[in-house]
Amino acid sequence: MNRRFRWADLQIRRFKNCWDRKELKKALETIPESLEETYKEALTKVAPPRQERVRKVLMWLTESLRPMTQEEIADVASCENPEELLGVLTSLLVTLIDEEDKRTFKLANFSVKEYLIIKGADDKPPWYRFNDEQAHILISKMAVSLLLNTDRCTRSEDAKTENPLQKYSARFWPQHAAKVVDFNSEDSIERQREIDKLSSSKPHFTTWLQLHDHDAYWYGQYPHRQIFA
After folding, report:
1. Which of 3, 63, 157, 220 reaches 20 to 30 Å from 21, CA-CA?
2. How far is it, in rounded angstroms, from Cα 144 to Cα 177?
3. What are the pLDDT digits (tens) for 154-179?
4. What residues does each domain of the chain span?
5. What separation, in Å, do the N-terminal and C-terminal C-alpha atoms of the chain show?
6. What is the CATH number assigned to the segment(s) 2-115?
7. pTM higher than 0.70, yes or no?
8. Rounded to whole angstroms, how far apart are CA atoms 210 and 194?
9. Per-residue pLDDT tens for 57-110?
10. 29 SS3 class
């Protein structure tokens, strides 16, 4: 039943986005028969020059361990003004969350993730579809690369977040990396080299710890464990 309500809601949004009677008439004549067809229609309208950026954003939103801010999405897409990109996505695929005046986003419905994620073999998927592992490889690779390219001083009190993705990357890259099973692909091999560099280089390792104090987070979540310290 939830899927029926979701489909009906998306059709209402399609109609609201029409600029005039002519466009509304066309929308009424071409109503998608299913949720999947509705998502497909929205994504096939994305212009080719923007597809790579939209794909990256969809990967992050699909596997992100928390909702993402507009600034983080802008960094993922490498664009200073993500409003237009978000305008494409928020129409059907992504929802805006109001949390203390911060603009945060997540996938609008679990059915969006179900549609985007490929289950099983697919030799020639459309540009906007991918599997879980591809998304986790991309996220962990981007996160570790960001930490390797972040200049931090050695004193934690002087460390300031300049890139909106730094905090997320420092805290969550290990969880994304742990989801990767295929270690033989070119992307996985390159990602592992960067992980080795992050863990073996003292400046880079220090930067990581400055951006996310793992001990403080662990004890903050589980204070009773401090007795074993």
Report:
1. 3
2. 10
3. 334 444 446 789 989 999 999 999 99
4. 2-115, 131-224
5. 51
6. 1.10.10.10
7. yes
8. 18
9. 999 999 999 999 888 998 999 887 777 777 777 777 888 676 555 688 889 889
10. helix
Give per-residue burial for 37-65: e unless 16+ CB within 10 Å, then b: ebbbebbeebeeeeeebbbbbbbbbbbbe
Pick the closest to residue 17 from 95, 96, 99, 87 (CA basis). Answer: 87
Q: Which residues contact 211 (CB under 8 A, 6 or more apart)?
A: 147, 150, 152, 159, 161, 166, 167, 169, 170, 171
* pLDDT 10s digits, 105-127: 889 889 999 999 998 777 789 99
Task: Using alpha carbons, list the distances in angstroms from residue 142 to 5, 31, 150, 166.
Answer: 36, 38, 12, 10
Structure tokens at 46: 């994305």
**Tokens 């059709």, located at residue:** 11
C-alpha separations of 145 from 12, 110, 192, 222 in Å? 42, 29, 11, 30
